[in-house]
Amino acid sequence: MTTPSDTPAADAAGAPADATLRTALYDEHQSLGASLTEFGGWMMPLRYASDLAEHRAVREAAGLFDLSHMGEIHVRGPEAAHALDVALVGWLSKVEVGRARYTMIVNEHGEVLDDLVVYRLGDEHFMVVANAGNVPLVARELAERVAPFDAEVVDESGATALIAVQGPRAEDIVAGLSAGDADAVRGLRYYAAIAATVAGVEALVARTGYTGEDGFELFVPAEHAVGLWRSLLGAGEPDGLVPAGLSARDSLRLEAGMPLYGHELTTTTTPYDARLGRVVRLDKCDADGNPVEFVGRAALEARKMSEPARVLVGLKGLGRRPARADQHVVVSHHEPQVVVGRVTSGAPSPTLGHPIAMAYVTPEVSAEGTALSVDVRGREEEFVVVPLPFYTRPTD
Predict the structure, then answer these.
(1) How far apart are CA 27 and CA 12, in angstroms?
(2) Which residues form the Aminomethyltransferase C-terminal domain (predicted)?
(3) For the chain, what is the radius of gyration of the CA atoms?
(4) How confident is the model over 137-162, as pLDDT tens digits?
(5) 176-180: long-range contacts at Cβ-Cβ below 8 A with a sequence spacing of 24 or more?
(6) pLDDT value of residue 10
(7) What letter would DSSP give residue 309?
(8) Cβ burial, residue 288 (10 Å; 0-12/13-18/19+)
(9) Superfamily name with CATH number, domain 1-306
(10) Cα–Cα distances in Å, from 138 out to 38, 91, 115, 119, 310?
């Protein structure tokens, strides 16, 4: 989720700062020799051995991630579906039981408070997964927005652990531990979820992820996290699975062109700025066919019809030095320097072998093939605008 340059370093002993939260797998990370860092209020593994090795393992075999810092907020009740239609930009009442939807929660100005994945677990039961640092805000906003409806909001983040297995061998590893549920796990569609027993643990198994690879996310009671983690690690080792930290997670999602809250998405951006306008359902209606007046609708409708002030683009580096977040995008070889944008995320790409970055730039320089530069510590490095994502996993 973050690169080493963007995160505070852990101290030499790997001890968490005061008031920093620990997941149920904290001792497991320590025993594996992880370098730990604070992220979103939690002490999390940055890497276990090598950023590059962990990244490549996910692309070529499998990686095991602790995502227990993420939030799980449940919305239940007869009017839960309609309440979420009003609370979020997506059309959640259209989601089938057992499926998931990527969506966002915005303020009245249409600015992104968080990007979310919402699972429909029953006709009247949804689970909203929020980013770690935004969980209190999302839980509070949902509670306020759902209050007029016959539904309740319960934050079950503290009682829930989330473990991900990502990579081309993920299906074999998870299905291999699923006994009587193996066929159901193998048959699971993308952005779908089922209840299954994995290594003897009752889990919600979702075929979702944040790496650009096939993979699974397993939601389990926090008290069962250690046993499941150890089982997955042992079963996956012959297939090349390794534990992977935040640094590899960040380089993987960057290659896949996936936004990170706090970088591509903030309270100064709308979904349209980030080229994610597809998640905004201005056409959603209630059961009587009336338009749903969801929070931020008017602002987003106006934004859709207006010319953008900036556009999110991919940048391919032509040299060796990577761009980093907050560095200026400039017109190449122009004196005086003309700033036309800002990098939101950047790093060397282990898979592609050259620097990559995402940046917000002005529309006139956003076309594919446009030559630009990034001011990297006082020296202009050459980049070119390319389509997102940078990497797409091979298909059979």
Answers:
(1) 16
(2) 310-391
(3) 21
(4) 999 999 999 999 999 999 999 999 99
(5) 176/235, 177/231, 177/232, 177/235, 178/205
(6) 33
(7) S
(8) exposed
(9) Probable tRNA modification gtpase trme; domain 1 (3.30.1360.120)
(10) 20, 18, 10, 15, 27
pTM for the full predicted model: 0.94
The CATH architecture one would assign to domain 311-386 is Beta Barrel (2.40)
Could you give the CA distance from residue 371 to residue 106 in angstroms, rounded to a whole number?
A: 34
- Could you give the 3-state DSSP secondary structure of residue 273? coil
Which residue is listed with tokens 């200026």?
A: 328
Q: CA end-to-end span of the chain, whole Å? A: 28
The structure tokens 């002993």 sit at 13
Contact 104, 56 (CB under 8 A): no
Nearest to 318 by CA among 388, 376, 256: 376
In angstroms, the CA 62 to CA 250 distance is 16
Strands lying side by side in the sheet with 100-106: 100-106, 112-122, 125-130, 71-76, 152-155
pLDDT tens, position by position, 292-333: 999 999 999 999 999 999 999 999 999 999 999 999 999 998
| pLDDT number for residue 333 | 86
| Cα–Cα dist 139/128, whole Å | 9
**Residue 2's pLDDT is what?**
31
Helices (H) and strands (E) in the chain, counts: 9, 20
Residues ≥6 apart with Cβ < 8 Å to 260: 1, 2, 250, 253, 345
Tell me how far apart the alpha carbons of residues 295 and 162 are, in angstroms, rounded to a whole number. 29
Task: Pull the structure tokens for residue 218.
Answer: 């397993």
- Give the position of tokens 């079950």: 156
Residue closest to 29 by CA, chosen among 17, 37, 39: 37
What is the number of alpha carbons within 13 Å of residue 277 lying toward its C-beta? 16
Q: For residue 217, say whether it is annotated as part of any ligand binding site.
A: yes
Question: Which residues, other chains included, contact 147 with Cβ-Cβ below 8 Å and sequence gap of 6+?
Answer: none
Return the sign of the alpha-carbon dihedral for residues 155, 160, 166, 170: negative
Residue 117 tokens read as 């994945």
Residue 14 pLDDT class (50, 70, 90 cuts): very low
Task: Name the residue ranges covered by the structural domains of the chain.
Answer: 1-306, 311-386
CA distance 66 to 78: 33
